[in-house]
Design goal:
CATH superfamily of the largest domain: D-amino Acid Aminotransferase, subunit A, domain 2
CATH topology of the largest domain: D-amino Acid Aminotransferase, Chain A, domain 2
Bound molecules: 2-OXO-4-methylpentanoic acid
Radius of gyration: 20 Å
CATH class of the largest domain: Alpha Beta
CATH architecture of the largest domain: Alpha-Beta Barrel
Largest sheet: 10 strands, mixed
Helix content: 10-25%
Number of strands: 18
Number of domains: 2
Number of helices: 7
């Protein structure tokens, strides 16, 4: 791996006590190419602008994917959370977008090297992390619609605080109405920019109505709950944790997976299955809806206090954070910050 260090650090320009999400970027980045049917020598270079042709095909047809994972400061180490699981999803997204996969060893080696080099950028406060954003885009220059022969893989990192301004306070969601995020056979389960582009207009409209995010319903019957776009969704109904199954239209979240593993370990009944908005409304009315929360790398555990669907308003747990939501948050962040034992082998630890 070739490493070119930045002449000067920009770290002093960042107020680490007031971090928003994804607004500041660390000194270095990973950048290397795929050509002649293989990934070339990885490089770490100073963070900065890149030069590309306006004819670059990913500008025009969106052949690109990304990942998002986090590194945490523990005092004497930096913990990267579940890099192997993120690599697995990276390659699944690549497959759907006809992008060449990457070997696990290479994916993890470059991320580890970048985080090690920029270890001073991992923020220290609880609730903060270094967000790691690997991404790949097609780089051939042409205007025909076809699979590119060349790609660039990059990783940038950003010291972050909470994703939602609400922090751990419950968010308010509104169902998707006239819009659809994904349909079976589409791109829904791939982490690709198109899914996020599709979410922008509905999210703007939701915000104008005073809601934090859109709760996506399925594209065919407009009935079954899918995800929130920036996170997966879980409900606790009558003591059972219910989350929509991974049927191809929703993102296979790493935090979702972690919550399911923990819940099963704690003896909580878990159901991954289609769940309709009507079932949630009925559970709210008969008093069995106990909690709702989103799960995501950026969002961690985000309690849901209210869901609006047409004329119905569901208030969950009096708009307060639920006991189980808090327990998942405490357990996951405890493992991430090295305060709790890494019982599942989720942590890649870098000694400082
Ligand atoms: C994540 O949770 O890592 C995401 O990618 C969600 C959002 C920031 C796009």
């Amino acid at each position: 791996m070739r490493i070119e260090k930045a002449l000067e650090s920009k770290r002093h320009e960042v107020d680490f006590d007031n971090l928003n999400f994804g607004e500041k970027f660390s000194d270095h980045m990973v950048s290397f190419e795929y050509r002649d049917d293989k990934w070339q020598t990885p490089e770490i270079i100073p963070f900065g602008n890149i030069s590309v042709s306006p004819a670059m095909c990913s500008f025009h047809y969106g052949q690109m994917i990304f990942e998002g994972l986090k590194a945490f400061f523990t005092g004497d180490r930096i913990n990267i959370f579940r890099p192997e699981k993120h690599h697995e999803r990276h390659n699944r997204s690549c497959k759907r977008l006809c992008i060449p996969p990457m070997e696990k060893e290479l994916f993890i080696r470059v991320i580890k090297a970048l985080v090690t080099l920029d270890s001073e950028w991992v923020p220290r406060g609880k609730g903060t992390a270094l967000y790691i954003r690997p991404f790949v885009f097609a780089t051939e220059n042409f205007l025909g619609v076809k699979v590119s022969d060349t790609y660039r893989f990059m990783v940038i990192t950003s010291p972050v605080g909470a994703y939602y301004k609400e922090g751990l306070n419950p968010v308010r969601l509104i169902t998707s109405g006239a819009y659809t995020r994904a349909a079976k056979g589409g791109l829904g389960e791939a982490k690709t920019p198109a899914n996020y582009a599709a979410s922008l207009l509905p999210a703007e409209e939701a915000k104008h109505k005073g809601y934090t995010q859109v709760l996506w319903l399925d594209g065919i019957q407009d009935k079954f709950i899918e995800e929130v776009g920036t996170m997966n969704i879980c409900f606790v109904i009558d003591g059972t944790l219910i989350t929509p199954s991974l049927d191809g239209t929703i993102l296979p979240g790493v935090t979702r997976d972690s919550v399911i593993i923990l819940a099963k370990d704690w003896g909580i009944r878990v159901e991954e299955r289609p769940i309709s908005i009507d079932e949630v409304i009925a559970a709210s009315k008969d008093g069995t809806l106990q909690e709702a929360f989103g799960t995501g790398t950026a969002a961690v555990i985000s309690p849901v206090g209210e869901i609006r669907h047409h004329e119905e308003t569901i208030i969950v747990n009096d708009g307060k954070i639920g006991g189980l939501s808090q327990r998942f948050y405490d357990e996951i962040t405890g493992i991430q910050y090295g305060e709790l034992e890494d019982r599942y082998g989720w942590i890649l630890s870098i000694p400082l």
